Amino acid sequence: MKRITLISLLLIAGLSQNLFARDGYHISVKFTDMKDTMVFLAHYFGEPLPKIYKADSARFDKNGVAVMDSKEKVLGGIYIILLDDKKTYFEFLLNNGDDMTITATAEKLPTGIKFKGSPENDKFMEYVGFLKDFGEKQQALQKQFEAAKTKDDTATVRAKSVEESKKLTNYRRDYIKSNPNTMLSSIFKSLEVPQVPEGKHYLADGTTVDSNFAYNYYKKHYWDDFNFQDDRLIHTPIYNGKLDEYINKMTLPWPDSMEHEADWLLKQTKGTTELFKYTLWWMTHNVENSKIMGMDEVFVYLVENYYMKGDATWLTNEELQKYTERASKIAPNVIGNVAPEVKLKEISTGKEVSMLGVKSKYTLLIFWSPGCGHCITEMPIIDSAYKASWKAKGVKIYSVITEEEKKLDDFIKKNKLDGWIITSDPEHTGDFRSKYDVYSTPTIYLLDEKKIIRGKRLDHTNIGTIIDFLDKKEKKEKEQKK
Question: pTM here?
Answer without folding.
Answer: 0.84
